[in-house]
Amino acid sequence: MLGRLATWLRLLGADVTYEPWISDADLMERARNEGRLVLTRDRGLLGLPDPVPRFGVTFDRLPDQLVQVATHFDLTAFVPFSRCVRCNVVVKVIPKESVKGRVWEYVYDTQELFTECPVCGRLFWKGTHPTRAREDLRRMLGEDIARRIRW
Ligand SMILES: [Zn+2]
């Protein structure tokens, strides 16, 4: 139910796992083992007597959900675009020479900083996340919150 929220939180740099098919018991077990906070819309899950911290997302629309989470938690601790959105791992800076032949020549000639996902091998550079994603985030979060983020 919160798949899009999970994706955008990863874009903001947060460590977010998303498993819509996991059972409540397995979810709580995993959160406990990994020291995670559970974001959910499921009242049953929120009501379980369990010490695992949970946060109830009460909105239907993605922008409202993002603002609710950003208002309640300090998202300024995260570095946007520092994580592979697909694998949820922090990307690593790699030497420019190592991407020769793996990216378009134009990209190689115009970019200096390259990062790579250690899991899926996807390469990123400044232009990978178009200005569009930044603008979408700014628009959804609003200026007050967006101003505090370390872009
Ligand atoms: Zn990846």
**Strand order across the largest sheet:** 3-4-5
Largest sheet: 3 strands, antiparallel
Uncertain segments of ≥5 residues (pLDDT<50)? none
Into which percent range does the helicity of residues fall?
A: 25-40%
Got a strand count? 5
- Beta fraction of the residues? 5-15%
Distance between the termini: 28 Å
Question: Radius of gyration over alpha carbons?
Answer: 17 Å
SSE ordering: HHEHEHEHEEHH
- How many helices does DSSP assign? 7
Q: What global shape is seen?
A: globular
* Distinct small-molecule ligands in the complex: zinc ion
- Derived from helix and strand composition plus strand pairing, the structural class reads alpha+beta
User: What value does the average pLDDT take?
Assistant: 92
Oligomer: single chain
Keywords:
7 helices, 151 residues, 38% helix, alpha+beta, binds zinc ion
What does the model show?
The structure is a single chain. With 151 residues, the chain is an alpha+beta fold. 38% of the residues lie in helices and 10% in strands. The strands form 2 sheets. The chain has a 3-stranded antiparallel beta sheet with strand order 3-4-5, with no helix packed on it. The protein has a two-stranded parallel ribbon with strand order 1-2. The longest helix is centred in the N-terminal third of the chain and has 11 residues, at 24-34. The protein starts with a helix and ends in a 5-residue tail after the last helix. The structure holds zinc ion (ZN).
